[in-house]
């Protein structure tokens, strides 16, 4: 790091403005304005390239989408969402997407329906360091601006947890200012360098109003007392007012059209209508007094009686007295100019100013250099000058609400928050929050949630204890929104002196590249335009290492192979440097590119000695790590991409549109192969990880091409992007699966064999640059973008057929391609053929045959799962199987959720190890991090000790940290003798320091000799005498070794009365699990319950999170699947293990006063198996969606032989609409008689109604079965018999009937209008009842409303009675009644009720970025994945769609089309 000095953010900002980014040097981009980032650009219109058809005429899929991945099975992805209907303005090629109909399945399918690329995690962008007024808050919400997006966080109701609520991304250039409406938490104003001012609806995540102006607005603010009046100004002025609801042009404030010096900021007085102050760059301030005539005639004035929506408070009442001159300007007198430092020839520099909320005339002003003044604007004189330390200066300030005369400031050099009062020139308190300086802050009230009794909202609770000695500030219930110069964002509670929310966010500018570490793939490195490299742990999304601002742009980075903990990076300054992460130093700097930009760096993964770099100079250089230049390959223009195939073969992409391939072992400067690739520059080249002959290239002609190196031939052209292609990544296990990212803000997933686009996502808000696949998890993808975010994605949906084959027990040859080398064909089927698959197969061959089945399930489930946290599940399952050797668990086990039997032991060991590291001054990652405050790491160790109940270790740690008060306060809980010894040690320590504070401790320990000697040594003979007498009397009156005083009895906890410690632990685990589930982490939720041996609860959490494969696999591993299946020897052992765990739970409950006898081992085992069976049923529906009919039957056969299994197989057959011969073959495969025999059995009247309905529906006359089923359901509803299992099985059968004729195979279904309407209405009503019982609370009212709508629309004869039942059910739900006449504890029908609770799939807590959508039933903005309905115009959230389909599998649009989001 000796080469680069750490520059300030102002310095890098100026530097960045001068950099001409090569990515913007194309003539088609408009970059007329000076930007803080050279990579910002305007959208351009896509023009058809020469020789190619226009985008609107393109047909993307030459083959049927059903065969996109596998010729042997249909790939039906109808209705499964992220379809870009909302993105049509961004992607011109959408007009070319056409619907197809597969002739074999007779089902319509759209070309691209999406939803297969599932977002798992999002790392929000850091706060930008360019502009000042970029954070604002409104009670329970806070917002800050990154470069291109606004991030809004919200406090959960009844909790102090803050979660990312929405991302507002509509500005195309750097955001300059934010301001929240003072009376509405839903209205937010923003301004940007794109010359637009926007008014946002935060909850709708959309722009309500926007206006474009001629110059860049720098500040925006709502006018006091006016609901619809917004003000904004540019640097030069004037300040303008805009009534955004009146559709009028903005007008200048008081017709004042300009100022002599630039405006830094301005503030309206929060209480006085029309009073305004403007701060100028030269240090002068301009004050406008009140004037009732200044407001536009169309503006609305609010008073305290105004009714505002989404608000729990009203605007302040204003006063309209006109005092003095309307405007005066000047520099405050009496300050003396002391401490004010300005730039050369620039004079004093004003930093911030704020009105005193308790006075109409006082203003707080801060200047660069440390001047902080309270100014009377009437006389323009300084009332008070506040004194800061010599090296400190104010970066930002704010008044505290509900605390008259109290304000806070944030230091520019270091993260010190200072609390001041107006009548005291020095700070009352100083809080060191961070080593990095403040950038901006604001204060907001905090709701009284989870506060102690004395904080409960009374006047006493509103005050806080004062500092000892008096003069302390009364700190209200206020939190400070803090933005730091490194992009960090936090919310600090002043009264509690703790963080409510604190995260070191991501980069502040474009992230150009991301790369997983080969040896430790939990680490992901990112390089950014802001000049830094950060390394993240992807399981927590926290930074573990940072190379701070290097003063240059990081365009590319590459990890060293194997265990070399180094990164090579290419920069805009022409340097390639090698960073040793472990030692935190630069090992080598390669300067062959001189001062030309380096666009790409590639470290050879086969030969660690070679590093390739390509750049603007037109050369691709090959260096040794030592710095020796091996080769230099000259190109006719800049070289943008390079990639190694093996140790010797290298491919490059050039500006001339050609790909050149070199053999570095030959001393030739010419390429061995040259491919005339694209019509514009080639930006990326990537070799296929499996097929050595295949590589791909991405270009500025918006296409991706697939090449055969040996034949020098283009195999496919992937057309779909509407802008320059930047990111490329191959899936290492499905080598034809390719992911691309583009300037059109989309990521596309391709089947490269057939040039077919499988999925499109628009979650990134700007250009997608870097893509990287996890080395150990081939279906986990990372992406980075110009929106400064880092995102993780799961590709598991693309291998759904393979997952189903594994669960169905298909041969491994159907899943893994065993052919090797040249015998593999590029056009092969859907099979795994990467290195992980080879290792998995080798592992199975070494496994004991008795254990092969379960191990195979576990290995494949781990391979397919994209969430890295699943390894915690396997660790806990291993423990629950009875294994005790912790060393065989994953290396991250102790950092994740541990089993309760390991928690104390491992936590103590981890705390001791961390304490040793801290004592050596090491810190995380082997060195001390500058971002940590003093003692922060040791404080974490202390927290670990407290969690483990190791109070003595905690006390000893506190003594080493010189926090004796904490130690002495807890020492009596260890023992009274220990407390006395600790007191004596503290007295000795103070005595050695000659500190007079030792006196009370010597008195407490009765050490008369030392006490007298101390006083005599100081000449205090009178004190020595008096205290000696006091000690002698105390010694006579009470023995030193007497018993301790009585401890008052502990007040019982009414909430936890009667519950044992073990019972409370399970209760806490359930709360933790519910918390994680609602935040889109079902896997972590399951781990929380597995840690306390709650297998059923864990499987239920996974079921609610739609992790169906994991439910089945864990059930098998723990022996909780159906015992009627043929089990292998190890399976019986697993059953025993599961029963042992259940018996332990039951015994523990009986011994601890729990629910003994309520739930037997058998009952619990049955309920667990029901969860597994329900997952298998949903997986069967998934096979139906994919058109894998025989596989669906195989999965249904995994259920125990019962009517539930028979009905499931019948549902599969009823859903199939093929030819008669194909249907008969499917009958035989499912074990049913022929259709003719089914008719005979159904008409015979033998058996139950369920059996008759089943066989009639499968017969050539299915209408008879439908009529019988509807009559039966009607009778059961009228008779209040909906608690019978047979009712729901009959309902499932008729719900499988196709109500909409589709294709030629639907002719056998001729459904009368009355029967169609009756079925839809009955299904919706019974679905609503079942949803109410299962607590699907987000869809219940809409199901009842939908049932009423269907009944009114179709008016089926004989079903008028249903309207009254629907009304009664809706009323019961609205009243909160829970008695629906159903016994859910019935073990014979537990499959009906085991899937209770709302569904929350992975990532469902993440707000969408640039393609926000509104749910068609709830009218709420959708978070997480979406599900588009049949017309692709209406959309539901994936969670709502799943719950809806579980109880009523028909479209909420009332068309009768079936939903299948499984």
UniProtKB/TrEMBL annotation:
Record CDD domains: WD40
WD repeat ranges, renumbered to this chain: 168-210, 504-546, 675-717, 718-760, 761-797
Biased composition (Pro residues): 1042-1051
Swiss-Prot/TrEMBL keywords: Repeat, WD repeat
One Pfam short name: ANAPC4_WD40
Residues of the Anaphase-promoting complex subunit 4-like WD40 domain: 520-605
Segments of skewed composition (Basic and acidic residues): 1130-1158
Region annotated Disordered, chain positions: 1036-1059, 1123-1161
Alphabetized PANTHER family for the sequence: WD REPEAT-CONTAINING PROTEIN 17 (PTHR44464:SF1)
Name of this protein: Anaphase-promoting complex subunit 4-like WD40 domain-containing protein
Protein species of origin: Petrolisthes cinctipes
């Amino acid at each position: 790091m000796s080469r680069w000095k750490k520059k300030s953010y102002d310095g890098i900002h100026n530097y960045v403005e001068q950099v001409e980014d090569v990515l913007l040097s194309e003539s088609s981009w408009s970059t007329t304005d000076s930007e803080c980032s050279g990579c910002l650009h305007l959208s351009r219109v896509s023009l058809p390239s020469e020789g190619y058809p226009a985008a609107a005429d393109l047909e993307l899929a030459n083959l049927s989408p059903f065969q996109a991945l596998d010729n042997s099975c249909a790939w039906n992805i109808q209705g499964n969402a992220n379809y870009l209907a909302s993105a049509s303005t961004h992607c011109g090629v959408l007009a070319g997407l056409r619907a197809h109909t597969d002739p074999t399945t007779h089902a319509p399918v759209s070309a691209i329906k999406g939803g297969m690329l599932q977002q798992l995690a999002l790392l929000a962008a850091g706060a930008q360091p360019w502009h000042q007024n970029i954070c604002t808050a409104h009670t329970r919400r806070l917002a800050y601006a990154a470069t291109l997006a606004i991030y809004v966080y919200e406090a959960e109701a009844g909790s102090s947890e803050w979660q990312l609520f929405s991302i507002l991304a509509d500005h195309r250039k750097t955001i300059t200012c934010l301001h929240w409406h003072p009376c509405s938490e839903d209205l937010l104003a923003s301004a940007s360098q794109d010359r637009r001012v926007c008014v946002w609806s935060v909850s709708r995540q959309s722009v309500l109003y926007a206006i474009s102006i001629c110059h860049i607005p720098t500040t925006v603010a709502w006018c006091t007392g006016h609901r619809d009046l917004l003000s904004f100004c540019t640097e030069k002025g004037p300040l303008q007012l805009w009534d955004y609801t009146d559709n009028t042009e903005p007008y200048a404030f008081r017709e004042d059209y300009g100022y002599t010096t630039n405006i830094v900021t301005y503030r309206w007085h929060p209480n006085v209508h029309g009073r305004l102050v403007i701060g100028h760059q030269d240090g002068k301030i301009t004050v406008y007094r009140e004037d009732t005539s200044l407001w536009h005639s169309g503006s609305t004035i609010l008073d305290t009686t105004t009714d505002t929506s989404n608000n729990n408070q009203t605007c302040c009442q204003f006063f309209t007295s006109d005092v003095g001159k309307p405007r005066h300007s000047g520099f405050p007198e009496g300050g003396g100019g002391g401490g004010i430092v300005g730039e050369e020839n620039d004079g004093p520099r004003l930093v911030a100013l704020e009105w005193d909320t308790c006075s109409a005339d006082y203003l707080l002003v801060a200047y660069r250099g440390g001047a902080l003044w309270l100014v009377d604007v009437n006389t323009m004189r300084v009332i008070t000058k506040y004194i800061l330390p010599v090296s400190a200066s104010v970066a930002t300030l704010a008044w505290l609400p509900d605390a008259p005369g109290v304000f806070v400031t944030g230091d520019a050099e270091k993260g010190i928050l200072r609390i001041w009062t107006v009548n005291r020139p020095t700070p009352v308190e100083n809080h060191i929050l961070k080593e990095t300086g403040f950038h901006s802050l604001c204060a907001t009230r905090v709701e009284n949630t989870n506060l102690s009794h004395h904080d409960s909202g009374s006047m006493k609770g509103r005050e806080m204890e004062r500092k000892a000695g008096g003069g302390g500030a009364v700190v209200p219930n206020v939190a400070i929104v803090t933005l730091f110069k490194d992009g960090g964002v936090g919310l600090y509670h002043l009264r509690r002196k703790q963080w409510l929310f604190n995260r070191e966010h991501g980069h502040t500018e474009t992230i150009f590249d991301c790369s997983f570490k080969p040896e430790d793939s939990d680490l992901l490195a990112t390089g950014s335009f802001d000049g830094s490299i950060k390394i993240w742990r992807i399981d927590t999304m926290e930074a573990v290492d940072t190379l701070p601002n290097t003063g240059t742009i990081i365009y590319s980075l590459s990890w060293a192979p194997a265990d070399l903990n180094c990164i090579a990076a290419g920069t805009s300054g022409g340097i390639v440097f090698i960073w040793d992460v472990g030692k935190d130093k630069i090992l080598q700097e390669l300067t062959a590119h001189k001062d030309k930009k380096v666009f790409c760096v590639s470290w050879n993964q086969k030969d660690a000695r070679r590093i390739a770099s390509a750049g603007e100079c037109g050369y691709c250089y090959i260096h040794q790590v030592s710095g020796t230049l091996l080769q230099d390959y000259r190109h006719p223009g800049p070289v943008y991409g390079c990639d190694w195939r093996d140790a010797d073969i290298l491919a490059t992409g050039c500006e001339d549109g050609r790909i050149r391939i070199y053999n570095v072992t030959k001393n030739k400067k010419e390429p061995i192969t040259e491919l005339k690739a694209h019509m514009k520059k080639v930006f990326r080249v990537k070799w296929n990880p499996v097929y050595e002959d295949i590589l791909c290239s991405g270009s500025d002609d918006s296409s991706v091409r697939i090449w055969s190196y040996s034949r020098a031939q283009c195999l496919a052209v992937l057309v779909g992007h509407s802008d320059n292609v930047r990111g490329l990544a191959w899936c290492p296990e499905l080598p034809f699966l390719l992911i691309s990212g583009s300037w059109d803000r989309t990521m596309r997933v391709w089947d490269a064999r057939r040039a077919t686009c499988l999925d499109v996502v628009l979650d990134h808000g700007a250009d997608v640059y870097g893509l990287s696949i996890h080395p150990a998890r081939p279906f986990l993808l990372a992406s980075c973008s110009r929106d400064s975010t880092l995102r993780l994605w799961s590709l598991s949906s693309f291998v759904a057929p393979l997952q189903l084959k594994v669960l169905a027990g298909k041969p491994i040859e159907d899943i893994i391609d065993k052919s090797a080398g040249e015998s593999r064909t590029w056009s092969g089927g859907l099979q795994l053929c990467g290195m992980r698959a080879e290792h998995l197969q080798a592992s199975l061959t070494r496994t004991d045959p008795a254990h092969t089945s379960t191990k195979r399930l576990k290995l494949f489930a781990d391979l397919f799962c994209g969430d890295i946290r699943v390894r915690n599940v396997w660790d806990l399952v291993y423990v629950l199987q009875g294994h005790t050797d912790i060393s065989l668990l994953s290396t991250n086990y102790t950092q994740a959720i541990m089993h309760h039997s390991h928690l104390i032991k491992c936590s103590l060991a981890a705390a001791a190890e961390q304490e040793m590291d801290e004592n050596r001054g090491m810190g995380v990652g082997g060195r001390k991090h500058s971002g940590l405050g003093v003692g922060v790491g040791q404080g974490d160790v202390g927290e670990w000790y407290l969690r483990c109940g190791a109070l003595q270790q905690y006390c000893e740690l506190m003594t080493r940290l010189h926090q004796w008060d904490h130690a002495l306060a807890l020492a009596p809980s260890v023992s009274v003798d220990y407390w006395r010894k600790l007191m004596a040690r503290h007295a000795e320590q103070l005595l050695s320091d000659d500190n007079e504070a030792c006196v009370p401790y010597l008195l407490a320990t009765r050490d008369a000799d030392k006490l007298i000697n101390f006083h005599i040594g100081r000449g205090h003979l009178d004190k020595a005498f008096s205290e000696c007498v006091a000690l002698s009397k105390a010694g006579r009156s009470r023995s030193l070794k007497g018993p301790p005083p009585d401890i008052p009895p502990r007040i019982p906890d009414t909430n936890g009365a009667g519950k044992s410690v073990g019972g409370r632990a399970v209760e806490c685990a359930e709360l933790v699990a519910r918390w994680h589930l609602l935040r889109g982490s079902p896997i972590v939720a399951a781990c929380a319950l597995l840690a306390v041996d709650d297998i059923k609860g864990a499987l239920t959490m996974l079921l609610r999170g739609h992790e169906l494969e994991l439910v089945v696999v864990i059930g098998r591993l723990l022996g909780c699947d159906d015992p009627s299946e043929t089990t292998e020897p190890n399976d019986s052992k697993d059953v025993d293990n599961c029963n042992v765990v259940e018996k332990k739970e039951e015994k523990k409950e009986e011994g601890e006063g729990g629910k003994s006898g309520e739930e037997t081992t058998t009952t619990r085992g049955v309920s667990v198996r029901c969860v597994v069976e329900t997952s298998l049923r949903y997986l069967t529906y998934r096979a139906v969606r994919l058109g894998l009919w025989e596989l669906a039957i195989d999965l249904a056969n995994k259920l125990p032989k019962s009517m539930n299994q028979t009905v499931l197989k019948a549902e599969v057959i009823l859903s199939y609409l093929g030819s008669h011969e194909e249907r008969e073959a499917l009958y035989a495969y499912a074990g049913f008689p022929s259709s003719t025999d089914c008719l005979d059995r159904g008409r015979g009247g033998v058996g139950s109604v369920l059996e008759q309905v089943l066989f009639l529906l499968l017969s050539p006359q299915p209408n008879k079965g439908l009529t019988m089923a509807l009559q039966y359901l009607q009778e059961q509803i009228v008779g209040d018999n909906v608690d019978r299992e047979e009712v729901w099985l009959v309902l499932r059968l008729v719900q499988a009937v196709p109500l909409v004729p589709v294709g030629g195979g639907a002719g056998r279904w001729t459904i009368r209008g009355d029967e169609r309407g009756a079925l839809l209405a009955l299904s919706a009503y019974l679905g609503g009842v079942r949803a109410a019982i299962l607590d699907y609370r987000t869809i219940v009212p809409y199901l009842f409303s939908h049932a009423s709508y269907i009944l009114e629309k179709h008016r089926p004869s004989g079903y008028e009675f249903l309207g009254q039942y629907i009304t009664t059910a809706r009323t019961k739900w609205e009243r909160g009644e829970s008695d629906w006449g159903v016994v859910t504890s019935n073990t014979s029908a537990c499959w009906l009720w085991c899937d209770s609770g709302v569904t929350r799939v992975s990532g469902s807590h993440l707000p969408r970025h640039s393609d926000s959508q509104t749910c068609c039933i709830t009218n709420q903005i959708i978070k997480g994945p979406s599900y588009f309905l049949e017309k692709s115009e209406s959309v539901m959230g994936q969670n709502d769609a799943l719950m809806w389909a579980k109880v009523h599998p028909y479209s909420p649009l009332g068309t009768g089309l079936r939903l299948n989001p499984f």
